[in-house]
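Today's session is about reading a structure prediction critically. Students often jump straight to the picture, but the first step is always the sequence itself: look for stretches that repeat, for charged clusters, for runs of hydrophobic residues. Only then move on to the predicted structure, which in these notes is written as discrete structure tokens rather than atom positions. Here is the chain we will use throughout the hour.
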Amino acid sequence: MTPEIIDFKSIIELDSELNKIQDLDLLLERILFEARKVVYADAGSIYVKQAVEEDGKSVEKLLIKYAQNETFQKSLPPGQKMIYSVFSVPISDKSISGYCALTGNIVDVPDMYNIPPDAPYSFNSSFDRLTGYRTTSSLTFPLLTAEGRLLGVIQVINKTEEGKVVPFSEGDKFLITHFAANATIALQRAFVTRAMILRMIKMSELRDPKETGTHVNRVAGYAVEIYDRWAYNNKISDAERMNYRDILRIAAMLHDVGKVAISDVILKKPARFTPEEFLVMQHHTLYGAGLFDDPQSAIDNIAREIALTHHENWDGTGYPGWVDPDSLVTEKADGTGKPAGRKGEEIPFAGRIVAIADVFDALCSKRVYKEPWSEEQVLAEMRKLAGSKFDPELMNIFFEILPNIKQTQSLYPEDPTA
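Below is the predicted structure for this chain, in token form.
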């Protein structure tokens, strides 16, 4: 049986695996990994088509979402992820990925340093010059729906056989064509799921200007990065890690959805809250948890935990404390008869992770009552709060993976016009 037949069988089996992943970002990351695996590529990038504002106009570009490089990854300490530049590419014939998106055709380049002179596109070798990597063979293919709509582009680099870089074959193109068809179906479903979640966030944004799509994507991205390193440190199996990170990312995006039930007078107040207003604001945790009072899935269960507990503090001084979100009855009282705060590991794991992610993003962001803090100020504050507000183990992890946190931040920048 030829390698192409073996790999074609694995692509068919992979179809069901991709369809299990519900979050768009995690699916994109997995698709790139599997595309590289199918054709034995050392490196690669995946781009999505996205409208961006340029000079007051909406322009469609390719935005890089993930980049992978096995050679670089092997040189990193165990558990550490590769950092890559975040950039966009015009959909035009000037670059290989742009040309692929423009034409909808697979672009096969056996040697990036010997592109035919009549080709409209060229190769930017700046990455190779900076890193010492040698990009040789590349295969770039579009992700097109059955209706011909472009979702994105994948570029795989340096097919490797017996330790040597070789050109991609006709068999590789055959495999990639079928892989892309399966991946696109999974992507369409994930795009729909993401759109539905962002519509819920949009409802919150209509009430609370701080609750934006970029904010919730950053918080969810930070949460997954923290969890990934925790899972590595605690030797969690790949199967369990992949399943939980998918659930966590979607659930984390809904952490503040309960704000839809808070008055505009409070949500849109252009100043800090009074003690009375802050008490009302605290109820968004209960309202958010109440939206998931009839859980239908693991996502509902984790979303309920996060909505309810992401403002609890490690030392027990957070809110709402031990209150049943459905009946609003105090489950455990302190000495004054008020709800006792959850503390330590009484706070659900997902709530402890999102607490860190949410506060970090809030400190880095502009608010009606404050300018964004400097990176130095933010990190000093996060260190100070370890062990009182935040789980100290998770805070150690946060600082271990700070480069990955910053990369997630760059993937979802604030709209400068907002």
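Discussion point for the tutorial: The radius of gyration is 23 Å.
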